[in-house]
């Protein structure tokens, strides 16, 4: 039996798969990485069992400077319509929202940056990926834009005090995470050096190497099992969520 194959859309070299790639490969998932700046996006999702879309420093609607963003939105919309398991992170989540009828804007409360908590919403209790997460898991935040309005019919899964739409699901199995779970301390320090204005919004010690290493150990404890559940969704071993509350039998 062939390994399940994921299309991985990478908008920026500064936000690689990193730990997310390690966790997915450990689950036996084959990853087809497309750096959108350097390679054309595929015309369709034939041959893929799921999609991952990573983050980047650009805005979700900055098509004038980054015309390939339209391809990313098109593929994310297609993934939802085909009911393919999808995991979209930070900019990816904003692209997913924009592609399915939500609204993205510059965050009116300024950048959200640092090691912070998000809180699960009521709908997370019955979600196949979110149900087993702690109520207030640690995450890595580094964004200036926000998902202002969720797509119609989306399930709201997690919030933060600053920006409420931190995690959501569109359809059965397309997940948007405004925060990061894939990073390493080195990646975060690189972002801080490239965007010192945003980094200055975090508490100073949040960019200490020792603090980041400890935070990433906590991330791994919580989010690697989450990614394991996503891999089960991709492999067809976990039933997707259905808005009606009913479940379809596995074929």
From TrEMBL:
PROSITE patterns listed in its UniProt record: GATASE_TYPE_1
A cellular-component GO term for this protein: cytosol
Protein's UniProt keywords contain Transferase: yes
SUPFAM superfamilies: Class I glutamine amidotransferase-like
The Glutamine amidotransferase domain, residue ranges: 28-185
Record key words, sorted: Glutamine amidotransferase, Transferase
Pfam family, one: GATase
Top-rank lineage group of the source organism: Bacteria
GO MF annotation terms: transferase activity
Database matches in PANTHER family: GLUTAMINE AMIDOTRANSFERASE YLR126C-RELATED (PTHR42695)
Protein name, per record: GMP synthase-Glutamine amidotransferase
Taxonomic source organism: Lentzea waywayandensis
């Amino acid at each position: 039996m062939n390994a399940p194959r994921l299309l991985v859309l990478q908008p920026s070299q500064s936000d690689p798969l990193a730990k997310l790639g390690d966790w997915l490969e450990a689950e036996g998932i084959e990853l087809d990485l497309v750096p959108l700046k350097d390679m054309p996006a595929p015309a369709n999702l034939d041959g893929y069992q799921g999609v991952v879309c990573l983050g980047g420093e650009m805005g979700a609607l900055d098509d004038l400077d980054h015309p390939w963003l339209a391809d990313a939105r098109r593929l994310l919309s297609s993934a939802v319509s085909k009911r393919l398991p999808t995991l979209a992170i930070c900019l990816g989540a904003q692209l997913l929202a924009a592609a399915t009828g939500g609204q993205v804007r510059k965050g009116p409360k300024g950048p959200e940056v640092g090691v912070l908590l998000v809180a699960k919403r009521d709908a997370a209790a019955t979600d196949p990926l979110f149900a087993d997460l702690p109520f207030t898991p640690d995450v890595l935040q580094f964004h200036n834009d926000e998902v202002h309005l969720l797509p119609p019919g989306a399930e709201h899964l997690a919030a933060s005090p600053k920006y409420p739409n931190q995690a959501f699901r569109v359809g059965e199995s397309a997940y948007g995470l405004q925060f990061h779970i894939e990073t390493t301390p080195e990646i975060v320090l690189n972002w801080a050096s490239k965007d010192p204005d945003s980094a200055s919004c975090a508490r100073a010690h949040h960019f200490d190497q020792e603090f980041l290493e400890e935070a990433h150990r906590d991330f791994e404890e919580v989010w690697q099992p989450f990614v394991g559940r996503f891999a089960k969704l991709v492999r067809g071993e976990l039933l997707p969520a259905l808005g009606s509350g009913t479940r379809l039998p596995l074929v």
